[in-house]
Design goal:
Number of domains: 2
Order of helices and strands: HHHHHHHHHHHHEEEEEEHHEEEEE
Number of helices: 14
CATH superfamily of the largest domain: Tetratricopeptide repeat domain
Distance between the termini: 70 Å
Mean pLDDT: 84
Radius of gyration: 26 Å
Number of strands: 11
CATH architecture of the largest domain: Alpha Horseshoe
Largest sheet: 5 strands, antiparallel
Helix content: 40-55%
Strand content: 15-25%
CATH class of the largest domain: Mainly Alpha
């Protein structure tokens, strides 16, 4: 054998050995869930610290940047650093909308190694919630124009999903309900009615919606429609709905933790979602010296996330079965020339084929709303968590002062974790 052929043969063996060693190293790396575990622990008591722990990975370019950006922006939002949070939600929004393109080499790597080697693009329900979270930030900053921009983006995305034949549950009714409140605040009565009606079609079980539909129809000068709703719901219009000398205080409640991805016990190469137990079930808005109002649950993200993954199982399983076959073929080709090396390569490739556990893991389990009509003025308010029996627990916001203006809505947010 010539020296050049010998060198080439040794180089090929070295490359295969390097691939095996690299694969073993990859398998030893922490999963996404392990990487963010510590920051999630800080999110309730010290969200600024949680953000600090996430920042380096959020700013590092690479296949995982989007998922860390989403968690980082959410930690900043929880710390009430709304402007900084918006900065990174906007970056994440642009990144999530880039054409879903993966190079051939990355696709092949995902088969030989695992799905974590492909760039994370996010699920559709996550992409919609980026704009909802941006809108919440703008509302808490008192920036109605900014919130309206995100409302329009929400409408565009949801319409795009509808045209693409997405599942009905992906038409996020928290987003449409929040959009309706924003349209109302901007006195865009017809737009508000359309959004309330769309929310009702997606989830008719929200108690607020009965009065919302009647009031919005009347303000949009849809008299016949308002009468139809009054008859259907058995509710009469109320004078206070149209009191121009009042404003409205709106609490947006983000409760608990969304479900977590774990390796599926039936097959570790694909993920499953498990709910995170929740003690707090709702929240109570208290205006000191005036009154209290409990939140109504608008949107259960946990159910949507689990349903989304369930619908992805067939293609996920098919791809991983193909990956198992591809690994066997590759290992066999090497085994024919070097049995030990082929066995080592096969072992290494199968050892690293694990479930992709990346997700926007700092999202809440659900979103709720509480609304109170008030005279214009300054008020001291607080929010507290409620258990399943409707009793207050130890999740309480600091007392804060808000200003309610005539004919306007004032928005505040409250995040609970128990």
């Amino acid at each position: 054998m010539s020296d050049s052929n010998l060198i080439l043969k040794r180089a090929r063996k070295f490359n295969l050995l390097a691939l095996c060693l690299w694969s073993v190293l990859v398998s030893a790396c922490a999963t996404y869930q392990a990487e963010v575990h510590k920051s999630r622990q800080f999110l309730r008591e010290n969200p600024a610290k949680a953000a600090e722990l996430l920042k380096e990975k959020a700013l590092a370019e690479g296949k995982d940047q989007l998922v860390y950006l989403l968690d980082y922006a959410t930690a900043l939002q929880t710390a009430k650093l709304y402007e900084e949070s918006n900065k990174y939600y906007l970056i994440a929004d642009r990144m999530a909308e880039v054409k879903d393109y993966h190079s051939i080499s990355k696709q092949l790597t995902s088969i030989v190694v695992n799905e974590e080697m492909v760039q994370y693009k996010g699920d559709d329900y996550e992409k919609v919630l980026i704009n909802a979270m941006l809108a919440i930030n703008f509302l808490c900053l008192g920036d109605l124009d900014g919130a309206l921009v995100e409302t329009r983006r929400l409408i565009e995305k949801l319409e795009h999903y509808r045209v693409d034949g997405k599942k009905p549950y992906e038409q996020n009714h928290f987003a449409t309900y929040l959009g309706a409140l924003i349209w109302e605040s901007d006195r865009k009565w017809d737009d508000a009615y359309i959004s309330f009606e769309k929310t009702y079609k997606l989830n008719p079980d929200i108690p607020y919606l009965k009065e919302d539909l009647i009031r919005a129809a009347l303000r949009a000068q849809r008299g016949d429609t308002a009468k139809k709703w009054e008859k259907e719901f058995g509710i009469k219009r109320k004078k206070q709905w149209f009191n121009k000398n009042q404003g409205e205080l709106v609490l947006i409640h983000l409760q608990g933790w969304g479900p977590r991805k774990r390796p599926n016990p039936k097959w570790h190469r694909i993920p499953t979602l498990r709910g995170v137990p929740s003690y707090t079930k709702a929240a109570q808005l208290e205006v000191v010296g005036v009154g209290k109002e409990d939140t109504q649950k608008i949107y259960n993200l946990e159910k949507v996330a689990i349903k989304t993954l369930d619908d992805q199982y067939a293609p996920l399983i098919a791809k991983r079965i193909a990956a198992v076959a591809a690994k066997e073929v590759l290992a066999d080709q090497v085994r024919q020339k070097n049995e030990a090396l082929g066995a080592l390569l096969g072992f290494a490739m199968h050892a690293v084929d694990r479930a992709d556990l990346r997700q926007w893991s700092t999202l809440p389990e659900s979103f709720g709303i509480a609304k109170m009509r008030l005279k214009p003025g300054k008020y001291k308010i607080r929010a507290r968590g409620l258990n399943a029996a409707g009793e207050p627990n130890d999740e309480v916001s600091p007392e804060m002062e808000v200003v309610v203006r005539k004919g306007k809505k004032t928005f505040v947010s409250f995040r609970t974790f128990q």
